[in-house]
């Protein structure tokens, strides 16, 4: 709701000044404004967003796969009001190199992936390691709909209604030890059902990682569906990660293992080209990829190849929510 900030007296300080106190004061100010009814237009927006979070804002479900029941999210910034990318585009324009390197390959080839039964092993520096069947993960916390911007490192973007819950819900249950500083996510690597595993593009299995505080941020989503239905195989079924303020490749698909570590995990793209893909890979229009600028992006399904591109936002537009995670860090050095 921050685009109505002027009317509500709700201000986002520069990221360097965001402290828990400031966030708390702003929340209080916002709640008071809403409570006193001054918000007016803001409140209407809030109501319409809630309606949108119910699925009415982006049209009916695609009707392709099993439907999921969701509740409205209360997480700040978790429902963007931007126009949602058509399901057809989001489900046929994919990077999932285990099924081929062209954008159209995963939708054509991923039917071979077996998503049941599915188990996610949670291990490492935690007090309660264990194996979770998909059914148990689905019941661990109520599923919410989150409408997030997705920004690919290649310079294109989408807006996708995901279904899941904050990864923090799972993390709290496994009780990380004091020595745990990072979380590693391992994607399935099965050459029998994933035809390109073994190709030389990347080191398999695909591995991604976050700092523990990033993994605990409420916007970091353990994701089971999109567009109100279970994930299609090419989008990372049956369970994936979505980290909306980072480039898309940070959000590991088809996860089989979550490991808590003391040192940063060696991630797939960082191993492949460390000078191009840093560990953080936060969306940052001010830091170009060595081979192209990151200042603008093309919205799939909306912007044609020759349309004026839209400006990329710092942290993909989630600076108010996540900026404080990087206070004092040199984001050119830690790219």
Query: Helices and strands, in N-to-C order?
Result: HHHHHEEHEEHEEHEEEEHEEH
**Span of the ends, CA to CA:** 28 Å
Give the overall form. globular
Structural class: alpha+beta
Beta-strand share of residues: 15-25%
Average pLDDT metric: 88
Topology, number of strands: 12
Low-confidence stretches: 1-17, 27-56
Give the fraction of residues assigned to helices: 10-25%
* Largest sheet properties: 7 strands, mixed
Number of helices: 10
Radius of gyration: 19 Å
Short characterization:
By secondary structure, the protein is of the alpha+beta class.
What does this structure look like?
- With 335 residues, the chain is α+β, with helices and mostly antiparallel strands.
- It contains 10 helices and 12 strands.
- Strands 3, 4, 7, 8, 9, 11 and 12 form a 7-stranded mixed sheet that branches.
- The chain is globular, with a radius of gyration of 19 Å.
């Amino acid at each position: 709701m921050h685009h109505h900030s002027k009317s509500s007296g709700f201000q986002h300080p520069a990221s360097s000044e965001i402290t828990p106190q400031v966030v708390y004061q702003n929340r209080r100010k916002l709640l008071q404004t809403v409570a006193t009814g001054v918000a007016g237009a803001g409140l209407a927006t809030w109501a319409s967003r809630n309606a949108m979070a119910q699925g009415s804002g982006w049209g009916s479900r695609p009707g392709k796969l099993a439907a999921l029941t969701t509740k409205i999210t209360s997480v700040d910034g978790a429902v963007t009001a931007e126009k949602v990318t058509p399901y057809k585009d989001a489900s046929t324009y994919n990077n999932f190199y285990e099924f081929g390197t062209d954008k159209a390959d995963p939708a054509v080839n991923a039917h071979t992936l077996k998503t049941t039964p599915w188990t996610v092993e949670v291990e490492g520096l935690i007090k309660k390691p264990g194996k979770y069947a998909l059914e148990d993960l689905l019941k661990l916390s109520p599923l919410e709909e989150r409408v997030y911007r997705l920004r690919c490192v290649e310079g294109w973007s989408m807006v996708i209604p995901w279904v899941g819950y904050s990864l923090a819900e799972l993390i709290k249950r496994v009780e990380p030890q004091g020595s745990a500083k990072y979380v590693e996510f391992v994607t399935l690597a099965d050459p029998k059902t994933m035809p390109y595993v073994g190709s030389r593009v990347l080191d398999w299995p695909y591995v991604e990682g976050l700092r523990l505080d990033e993994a605990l941020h409420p916007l970091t989503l353990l994701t089971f569906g999109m567009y109100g239905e279970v994930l299609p195989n090419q989008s990372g079924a049956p369970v994936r990660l979505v980290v909306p303020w980072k480039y898309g490749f940070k959000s590991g698909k088809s996860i089989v293992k979550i490991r808590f570590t003391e040192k940063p995990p060696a991630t797939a793209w960082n191993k492949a080209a460390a000078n191009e893909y840093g560990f953080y890979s936060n969306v940052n229009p001010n830091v170009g990829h060595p081979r192209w600028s990151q200042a603008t992006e093309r919205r799939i399904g909306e912007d044609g190849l020759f349309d004026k591109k839209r400006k990329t936002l710092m942290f993909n537009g989630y600076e108010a929510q996540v900026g404080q995670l990087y206070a004092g860090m040199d984001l050119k050095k830690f790219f």
